[in-house]
Give the backbone structure.
Amino acid sequence: MDDLAIVAATIADLDVLDEIEQHSFKGAWPRATWRDELDRGWAYVELARLAGHARAYCDYWVVAGEVHILAIATHPDFRGRGIGKRLLEHALARGRSERCTLATLEVRRSNVPAIALYERAGFRTVHVRKGYYQGDGEDALVMLLDL
């Protein structure tokens, strides 16, 4: 995937963020939430562009010495190609460059592919948040990685 580029999302990317989000998550974020994320000084919303087209995104925060992964999503037509892995590696590298010592995230207990991705990167489950997700009350696994 030599033609994969990771670039900062802009307000012009709201449509593609929304499209990937709708295909990826129950209870997708509204556009207003994306606009807010793009305006936060500590938030990074980055797109993976393959052959010039946005195919995935990663939304993460760098704050108080931590990288907090909010979401990584790949359009269904492009899953299984390592794009999510590249986005995660990029977010963790930024955290290390900003002297972060910890990476954190929450993930649905049922999201086996995401859990596998995070475990391969070295994350470990440290807690279960019962009924964390709105709408269906699914549990969240809280995962940590020492950087």
